Amino acid sequence: xxxxxxxxxxxxxxxPLAVFALAIVTLLVVSAIFADVIAPHDPTxxxxxxxxxxxxxxxxxxxxxxxxDTFSRLLQGGRIALYVALTAVTISGLIGLILGMxxxxxPRWLDNALLFFFDTLRAYPxxxxxxxxxxxxxxxxxxxxxxxxxxxxxxxxxxxxxxxxSLKNSEFILAERAMGASFARIVFHHILPNVLGPFFILxxxxxxxxxxxxxxxxxxxxxxxxxxxxxxxxxKDGFDYIRTTxxxxxSGGLPLILATVGFTFLGEALRDQLDPRLRKTR
Amino acid sequence: MTAxxxxxxxxxxxxxxxxxLQALRDVSxxxxxxxxxxxxGESGCxxxxxINALLQLLPENATLPAGRITLEGEDVTHASTRRLRQxxxxxxxxxxxxxxxxxxxxxxxxxQMRDIQYRQPxxxxxxxxxxxxxxxxxxxxxxxxxLSAYPHELSGGMRQRVAIAMAALMRPRVLIADEPTTALDxxxxxxxxxxxxxxxxxxxxxxxxxxxxxxxxxxxxDRVVVMYAGVAxxxxxxxxxxxxxxxxxxxxxxxxxxxxxxxxxxxxxxIPGSLPDLTDPPAGCIFQDRCERxxxxxxxxxxxxxxxxxxxxxCHHSGxxxx
Lengths: 282, 323
Fold this sequence. Notes:
A: mainly alpha; MetI-like fold; B: eight-stranded mixed sheet
């Protein structure tokens, strides 16, 4: 497994776009992990003397309406964004993986029932569901994660189901059964590795979507609690003062752009490398 | 001597909306130890059903109203699921028709070959050594290097060799070959047939070779069973059946083989008519609707008319000229 990862990394490093994506993603992850060390100021400390400060050597990205250092807040926001994205994608991915394989392998009625369930969830607009749930539940990251999980696991479920279905009837699975493979062996040794490729690509592509949902909910004031330095909250602060101090909005948008570009490109590079059929022969 | 594989009066029905589809009717085939028996027939004659029945991997809507399959004296039709799983792979292996789809595309050759040895003793290195050894024996160059290759990196002929190596790796008593050369071109076909003969000599297994290609059957097999619409219509030694076919269907089938044509023709010969409706097969002979020799007696079940020793044809009017 270790060797496999090295070769995958090695192949990724040979692709310029993947290197670019990896650099951005590494930058985001490292800055999120060491946010406390890197941050030049306390992200929640107000300094009313330096309100709306323009970017300078003291305040790299200026300060907001309460005199808080935008750069330090964005670093903290990266933590929140990655935490929400990774947790939500893991949970929804696992639910989708299990339900999708159940639908693909189970009896016809279960497949139909699950498909109906997936379609119903997917048809529901994310933002309306977010608003409804936010009205019912306490404001916080938990609510954001639940909203994301509810709206996105159906997508994983559908992809996994389609993959499972097409694999279930393929000749190599019949060949495996003819070789005496057990059900568990077929599922875990043959179906799962075939499903995981598309699954991880979908997950990587979904990370920026989740980050955007978190930012969007925080922007609307139904995400993180007030005062928490989320990217969406920074955007909201900047939006209120866009006429006088546009740099708050601009710097708030920068990490979102970086995250979206980085994870999307990484997902595409992974898709090219993980699928042996798309990989260039060595 | 007990037969390696014995199929007695095997009948398989599929439940469909139009009623029971009689995919196989009273098929009996004997594959003696160390022999190669061919099954020949056009599409829809029940070849795939036969394989699935042998492996007991029939779809859910299939039933076996009658018949028995015994492998080395052991009843397959009534074996437990657990025992069946052991028999598959170890006592009977299958080589499938299309090498493009019969290997898992995302696992390396070595991993797949190691996987099927999971009941075998030995650690990873030993299993890999066995795999490489077998790959070398089926004529794959650089067998050790090929263990880390993925199926898409190999050509069709190479993949079929890998599939044969995988089937032979378990040293089964019976090897079932499901049209293993159909998806390959003609030059490869000869190589694969030679390879199968070699493997058969080496591990001493019996082979049930299923094909619609008469030439391949004639080249490889000791005996041949001709199937039509789920019924075995003729059986005998290969040379006998091809040189002196007794059943009108076999005669037609041989006449239609493009390999026999001496002169260029615009239209390839074919048998007029189409396969009977298997949900409501005609009483008596299954081939009567398309048969030139058919008379009133054909509405009664045909006898197994002996032709020569060990060669019979299920027909009222069998023989080269009919009677």
